[in-house]
C-alpha cells in the first residue's frame, strides 16, 4: 500500500470512529507504531486529524453518533468491559445505567436478580424488561433520536429525586487532566446528575477514549470511584490513575478480524 493511500485510510478510520489507537493502526496496516506516529504527525500538520495520547481523534464537527453505529464500534472491548462491570453489581442494589452501548451490553449481561435500575436509555429499559426480578425506572424527558435516550430538564429533575448505590457510565473522551467529556451537551448534563445521585461512579470506557477531549466536560477524575477498561490501556495511564487513587480494572477482549 502506498503511503498516500495509507494516510487517506487513516483519516477515514479516524473520522468514522472519532478516535483510534496507534497500536490498532499499526496492526491494521502492518507497519511499526513509529511509522504510524510519523503518519499522524504529518496528518495533524495538514489539519486532517488531531493527535491524542496514544492515538488520534477526528477534527470533524462532533455530534451525537447514531446508536446503530456505536453498537459495532470497539464491540469486543465493550462486551468484555460490560461483563466485568456486571461482577460488581450485587442483588438488592439500586443502580443507574446511562445510554451508552456499553451500558446496553451490561444490561444484557446482568442476571435476573432483585435490582432497581434507573436509566435514560430506551434500549437498556427494553433489554431489562425481559428480566422479571429487575425493577426498571425510566427518567423520561426529551427524546434524543440518534441515541434512543432521554435527556433534558425533566430527566435531570427525575434523577434528582433518587439516591442509588452505583452509577455505571461511559463517555466519548477521558483525559487525565480535564476528566470525562461527551459530544452532546444534554447527555453530559444528565451524566453529571447521575454522578451526583450515586455513592459510587464506575466508568466503563475502552482504551481508545483515553487522551481524548470532546465538546462538553462531564466530570472530573476525582468524581470517579472505579474505571473498567480493556488491556490496551497504556502503562503510563495506569500509573497516573493509581497515583490519583482511582481503582482500575482491565479486561482482555476477544479480538475479531478486521478487514480494510
From TrEMBL:
Alphabetized UniProt keyword annotations: DNA-binding, Transcription, Transcription regulation
Matching Pfam families: DeoRC (PF00455), HTH_DeoR (PF08220)
GO MF term (any one): DNA binding
Highest taxon in the source lineage: Bacteria
Boundaries of every HTH deoR-type domain copy: 3-58
Span of the signal peptide: none
Protein's recorded name: DeoR/GlpR family DNA-binding transcription regulator
Organism: Ectobacillus funiculus
